[in-house]
Structures are given as C-alpha cells and as structure tokens.
User: Fold this.
Amino acid sequence: MSDRIIEFDKVVAGYSPSLTILNETTLDARRGEITLLIGPNGAGKSTVLKTLFGILVPRSGEVRFEGRVINGRSQRDLLADGIAFVPQGRNLFGTLSVRHNLELGGVTLPRRDLPARIEEVLDRFPRIRERIDNQASTLSGGEQKQLEVGRALLLHPRVLLIDEPSIGLSPKLVADVMAMLRGLADAGTTVLMVEQNVRTALKYSDRALVLEMGRLALDRPSSDLLADPDLNRLFLGGHAAAASGAAA
Assistant:
C-alpha cells in the first residue's frame, strides 16, 4: 500500500466562480507523518484543508484518500472514513462544560462507545480531566486547544487536519501543542497542518510543502528547510521556485 494517504491531483477550487484559490494543486501527505503547509497569505494553505474536508468541492481534479476519490463527499462521511478537522480559531461551545463539548464531538459514535472514547481522551489530556465539569470558556488557551484536538480524537481519525494551532498561545504552549501533534504522528496518525509559526512547526514536522498562488512550489524535508538560510523568503512569495532550483 502506498505511503501517500492523501493526494491532490491537479485540483482547482475556490470560493466563487470568480475567486479561484487552488490552481491545479498537486501534493500529497504520507502516513504517520506531520506535513506542514506553508507559504504567503492567500497561497491556498487553508483552502487545501477545507477542500479535503468537503467544505469546498473541487471544480476539477481529484482529491484521494487511500487511493479513493473523495470529491464532494459529506463531512459526516469523511469523519466516518477517518478524517477529522480542527479549524482555525476557537471552535468550542463556551457556555457548555468540557464534558458536554466532548459528548457533542462524539455525536456520530454509537452511544455505547462514547464513555470509553471520552476516557481515552481524558487519559491523554490529564488537565482536561481536571477541568471536566468547568465551562469550556474558562479554560486557558492551551487547554482549549487540547479540548479541540481531544474532541477530534474521539473518532479515532487516521488523518488530522489542523489549521493554525498556535493562534493565541504563548511560546511555551505552542511547543506543548506541537509536541502533542508529534506524539500523535509517532503513534500512527497522519497530521496535515497549516501554521504561521513556521520555525517552531518545522522542528516537529516531517515534510514542508510551500504553496504559492495555489500551486505547490517546493516539497522538502522539514529539517532541510529549517537549515535553509533563505527560509524567510519562502513566505513572502516569488522565491520558492528559485530556492528549489538552488537546492537541486
């Protein structure tokens, strides 16, 4: 079986007929790795995640999961297939307890399975267990991110999509979140991540895919890219192709 669990093959997608973001985007994510999507604003990073999770439907091209075309599948079906999405920003029910947020995250599970799945999440995140009866809005930023990820893990996803996990977090909490994601990948979960805190994210990821204007401009091991003295230029646009040529 191929290591490529996610594949985009010449995918064209956008938010309206006049606003195309992905321009025949071709890329892949491999099993058990953290793949980091980086590039300038508007390059299509978050659009890749939304297209993969069925929020946007490709106009052309194919999105494949384990070799099967998943264009146009519903988000409920994608969750059942093993793909979970943690979008940018806070996505909790702030007035509800931590427990109730977890229960809502497992609404698609058989009722008999939910208590055991919640216990698995609480074992992974002891701080969340301590706050289980507190309102979600009273949790710190780092605790809220743990809860968001824990809610996604209820479904035992094979692929976790996560958009800007460091937003609003201190450097220490960013490192904690990245270490958590690294642990998930090491345990077999494929992680596809968008993150502006690039240098930190590169330290924990396996591959970096640089997007420019909706196309893949560079695909390199994260460790190689982290050591590149021209790293900062890759996020300003117009330099990824030159960097790729220099590395060849």
Q: What stands out?
A: The radius of gyration is 18 Å. The longest strand covers residues 4-16. Residues 1-82+157-228 form a domain with the Rossmann fold fold (CATH 3.40.50.300). The chain has ten helices and ten strands.
